[in-house]
Every structure is written in C-alpha cells, then in structure tokens.
Amino acid sequence: MASVTLPERLDTSAAFALKSAIEQAVNSAGGEQVVLDASGVTYLGGLCLQVLLASRCPLAAPSEPVVEAYALFGVSACLTEPLAPIKE
Amino acid sequence: MSGDMDDILLVFFQECEEQLQELERGLSALSDGESGKETINAVFRAVHSVKGGAASFGLENLVRFAHVFESSLDGLRSGRVAPTPEIVKTFLKAMDVLSDLVAEAQGGATVDTGRIEESRAELQAIIGEGSGGAQPQQDDTVPADFTPVPVDFEPVMADFDFGDFGFDEEEAPAAASLVVTFSPHTAMYDRGDDARNLLIGLADVAVAHGGTSTVTCETAALPALAAMETEKSYLSWRVVLPAAVPEESVHAVFDWVSDVCDVTITRDGGSGPSGGESAPEAAAAPATPEPPVPEPSAPVAAPLEATPVAASPEPQKPAAPPSIADKIMAELPPAPTPAATAPIAAGNTTARRPVEQATIRVDLHRVDDLMDLVGELVIAQAALESIGQREDGGQQEMIKRIASMKTLTRDIQDAVMAVRAQPVRSVFQRMQRVVREACSMTSKDVVLTLEGEDTEVDRTLVEKLSDPLTHMLRNAVDHGIESAEARIAAGKSPTGQILLSAGHRSGRILITIKDDGGGINRERVLATAIKRGIIAPDAVLTDDEINNLIFAPGFSTAATVSDLSGRGVGMDVVKQAILGLGGRVTISSVEGQGTTFCLSLPLTLAVLDGMLIVAAGSTMVVPVSSVVETMMVNHKDIYMLPDGANVVSIRGACMPLIPLASELGLGGYGSGGLSEEDVILVVENESGARAALIVEDIRDQAQVVIKSIEKNYRQMSGVSAATILGDGSVSLILDVPALVANALGRIDTRPSDVRTGLAA
C-alpha cells in the first residue's frame, strides 16, 4: 500500500504541490490504494481540504489539527470514509 | 493538538482563572450583604464568560454546569431570587464545583459526578423557588438521566439542557435558527483568505451567543482529483447558528469577503436546524449522528441553543424518538463539534500537564517603563564608549557616568521586578474556598477575612505560597478554631474568625494567619512530643520552643485524626516549603485567645540590599533589611552572664552579643572579646527579637545577587546564600534570623516572648 506523507502546513500555497504529490503517488501506485499520512499536519486550509477530499484517499493517523479542521469544515465523516468515487 | 489550539486553550484557562476570581470576589461581596446590581452583573458575567469559552472548546461538562449556574444567577439578576445567605452559600458551593470542572478540563482530577449533581440540584432549586417550581422538576430528570452517558461516548456538545429553563430572556422568544450558506469564490483564496477563517468566525459568533454552529459541507461540486484545479474553489458550506445570533454579527464575519463569496442568510422557521429546506441540510440532518436533540420535542427547550455540530452524512435515520432520554442515548454521536474532540480527549488525560507554560499578564505601562529604561541604558552605554575613546581618559566623566548607570541598573531591576510582581490576591482568594471546605468537613463556622490582597510579590513566590497556606488554614480551622459549643462556653461568638493578611515589612513580605481559636495547648503539645519521641522526656523547653514543636516532622496536635489532618502533610512540610522560599515561620499563641502564624518571605529570590562587613578578615553580607542600627559600644555596657555569654545594654535594652567570627567557627576571637575598633550591628529578626553582632568593620552597602549556596554546595547554618562581589570574590550572605534565634535560644528568650506576646 502506497503512502504519501503530508507536509506540516497545508495552506493555500501548498495546494498545488499537494495535488501533484498525491497524483504522482496514485499514478506510481498503479491501482493500489494510496494512503495519506496526515499525522504531521498542523494546519489545513480550504483549498488543501478540497484536494484531500477530491483525492478520495483515506487518511492515516490524522493529527489533532486535521481532526479539528475536518470538524470545523463539517466533513468529519470523510476522516474515516473518503468521498464516494465519481462516476465517470 | 496543534500549537494554535493549545495556545488558545491556555488563554482560555487563564481567563477562566480570572473569571473565577471575579466570581469569588463578587460572591464574597454578596455574602457581605452587598447586593448591588453591579456585583450581581459581575458575577453573572464571570460565569457566562466561562461558559462561552468552554463551549468553544467543547468542554461539555463545564458548559453544562456553567449553564445551570448561569441560569440560577439570572434569577438573581432579574430580581426573582433574593441573595439570602443560604442562596449565596449555594452559589459559593457551585463556584467550587465550577472551578474544579475547570481544573478537570485542564487535566486535573475528575470531578465527582455526585457533587456536580448535588450542586446542580441546589442551583435548580433556587430558580425553582423563584419561578414556581414546575419547570426545574422536569429539568432535574433529564440531565440526571443523561449524565453518565457522555462518559461512554466521545464527548460531544450535547448541550441539550441549555435553555432547559427557558428563562434566558435573550434566548427564549426567538426560535428560528439562522442559516448561513456560503460558497467562496476562487478569488477569495487568491486574496489569501480561507473558508476556514469564515467558519471559525461563525463558530465564534455562535459561541458568543451561547450556542454552537452546525456545519455542513457541500462536496457535490468537487471533481475528481485529476480534473480539479488546485486554486479553484469547489466547496460550499451551510452553517446553522443559534437563533440568538443577530444577522449583523454574521454580516460582520463576511465583511471582508462579501465581494468574493456568495452568502445567503436566512432565518429557519421555528423548527430549528433540522427543519432546513435545502438539499444538503435535508440530507445531513437526519443522518447526522447528532441531530440537534431538542427540536422535535418542542416543549423541552429553546431549540436555538441546542445545535451541536456534526455534519457527517450517515446512512441511518433515527425514528421518532420514544423519549428524550432514549433519543439522546441513541443519538449521541461520535462526531463532535469543531475543535471539540481534541480538547476533551486531551483534557481527560494528564497529557496536558507538560504543556503547561508559565505566562504572566503585565500592565502595559510597566513594560513601557522597562523599555524606557533600556533606552536610557543604551544611551549610557554609548556615552561610556565615547569616554573610553577619548585621549585624555576622562576619569571624572567616567565616574559620573558609571554612577548614573548604577541608578539605571537599579531602576531596571525594579522595573523587571514590577513586571514579575503579582498581587497575592489570586492565592488569597483560593483560600476562601479552602476554609469553606474545611468548615464543611469539620462542621464549624469560620469566617476568613482577607487583608492586603493587593500586596505584590514576585510571581514565583505567589505560586509557591498556595500549598503552605492551604495547610496552615486547614490546620487553623481543624485544630485552631474550637467547636461552636466550646466557643460559646468560652464566651466567644460561635463563628470563628481567621485573618489572613499580607503586607510589606522592611523589604520582605509578611503573611499572617491569625485565628481566634483556643491557642496552642502547650502541655498537650509537650506531652505528645515526648510520647512520640520527638524530644527527651526530661527536656526543659521554653514556650516558644514548645510552639515550634508543631513543626517537627511526625507531629500531630490533633487529639483524634480527622479528615483534614493525618493526610501525611504536616506543618513540617509547611515549614520546609517556607524555608525553601527563603522565608521563616514564627508562631505566637495565647491560650484561649488564638494562634498567629507569621510567614516572612523575601520579595524576590534574586537580589538583595546588603551591608558588606568584615568578620575574621573575610567580607560577608548582612541583609540591610535586618540591620536596625550600627554603633561602637563601650566595654562597660557589656555584661557577662553566669553561663559565660555576653549581653550588651543599649539604651537600657539588653540583647545578646554575638561575636560573629566565632559564631561562624572562624576563630580569632575569645568568648565574646571586644576590641576597641569593633563595630556592633544591631540586627532584628521578623518577630522583632534583636541581637548585637560584633564585626570588625563595615565596608560598604551594595546590592548583591543571590546565589544559592545549598544548590552549589550544601546548607550551612547561619548562612543563607552566597554572592559574588564586584572584585570577583565570593562572599557569604548571613542568615540573620538564624543567628538571632541561636543566640536567643542560648541566652534568654524573654525579649522575644514579650514582643510576640504583645503581637498576639
């Protein structure tokens, strides 16, 4: 199982890099499930939240700030259960 | 938890501390019969602020209790309830519970639920009396059934008993929650703002009005990862706020982003958050693990208050609940309010402890003063530099500058001290509670009077005072004050009096604890001490020495071991603690009239004004504060006592003569021999006992920096610390009180007895 370690600070400026990192991991994983290691994240902003949600990858060991941020954004459920994949 | 959250939480706890002090002050004023509008409002505000803050951190236990407390206080505020002594007592008790809950949230011991319930019931009874009783009854049952639940579940903002009373004017009339939907434009993120900030703002608004926000995130617009543009905004939110929130405050949140964010604000008709019409809400509300409980059962509560957050769609729809309690049980959700889980989860463990970080609040002008002085210092330094570069040396100028720099240094030191200084009030007010608790345990009636709470002491001291004072006050209540019957028999008022006062006295802080109890029963103390083998059976002790026996390790004066004594912390611990702070404890006791403990503590642990003297050829420091006068004496004023010791008569008062050098074991002197050049320092300890020190010379007076000798070497009798002098040599700071005590013990205790007898 591939894993991406998320950077500490996921603010607006980190969104693009975050998306690239996840995309890269997903591509190289070749169909394998990619897990996002959110244990070290101390800040999560709106744009990065979008990326995390859109990736549909499960979070591993979310740090307290992440749990708080998910609750704040009203997406606590996505902590355990990623969004349903988009029907294409 | 994030550093941010920790910091905010820390501030919250600091504020709680302040609010609790405010509360204590207000309630004391109330119990003194001062029931002015301002006092009551202050008390109400204090509880309200604690509740508001706690709600934003999801400290559920705290919020719920604070709410009941607040409601009762509201009865007082609106004049429905009169502040009778009984009611004030209930409030005081509730305050203790509240501060325990705060401590619990901070990672302290868990508060006994029985106690909370008891106090809660009492509080509810108060408004029950004031408003016809029917409603509180119902309230009693619900929370009571409910209490055990949160323990098993992840703590939540299930503040459904908010508004139970329906008394809160602001909350009762409006029942329509405020629904805010917003979708940020991409431009908002470009601008550096974040939806996060808006949500935090809304949550704050909700909390400010005593409720919580329910957030739902609309993720339907979110494309697959590959298709998304990272800088584009896809998500939108729907936030349900308590009805008490005015629209203006919501507008204020969106003030900065109104042009880059679509916002709609609507009042939800009557049925509360779950009655929403929009798609996301309809989907979310029933599925939420934690639908705002009270709404369906309209009679219970003002729904506006009961809007816990949770917005996670889950595929299970609760059927119409058979009873409120069942419903709550069934629906207590795993998903908490924003920011709720973490604080609680951490708060319930001791993990928070190490985070504890010392901070102080300082008047801004004190910091400004300090800054000014530092500015001066920089100027002085520049001046010195320029003098140093001058060809002619500028000796005279240099000396002048150094003198002014000396003044500056002292001023800076004072300013820094002022920054660190804190009134002892915080500790003193806590003592009210200690006494109250001790009273209820011993069923005695004692009034604690505080004096000099504004006395400022170094912060480190303030904190360390708490434990010793607690023990001493418990002791005073438990052993000092007699039972009501005994008091009446002795012709005293059945209510005991304890005076706790603080004040400055010659560069030290003097704290006295004075009770009007039975005083120390010296015969019993002596008998107990002999029985416990603390002293030899044939020892002959002075009254003072007997008094001091209660500080001996393993000594207990109590005839029977009560709840309060026998906790393994005796007066010896108190004495050790005070000694550790460089302080001293003295007791004076008059049988039948009471006991007075005097704690004398240094103002700071860092610097002292010292007199540099010479004894046996080495320079030593005597704290200026303990020197009464210096003089040369005539041989004919010196008398020898039968045991070989000397006393000197100064203006008719006799005091023991201490040849300092031989006292310290430095030799060079016979038994108190006095040469013509020798100088006498009349020194005094805190209780006013005096002795005369013979020294060879007085060198100077200077400020010296205290270096602990215990830490660096070991404890030495007669020496309290060491310092480094301007020439780099190490010099000892004399422990005058110990020297005096030694001399008095050897020679004659009468002078001190006379004085302390008067003092008592």
UniProtKB/TrEMBL annotation, chain B:
Residues 267-300, 333-352 are annotated as: Disordered. Residues 607-745 form the CheW-like domain. GO terms for molecular function: ATP binding; phosphorelay sensor kinase activity. The modification Phosphohistidine is found at residue 48. It catalyses: ATP + protein L-histidine = ADP + protein N-phospho-L-histidine. GO terms for biological process: chemotaxis. Residues 288-297 have a biased composition (Pro residues). Residues 372-605 form the Histidine kinase domain. This is Chemotaxis protein CheA.
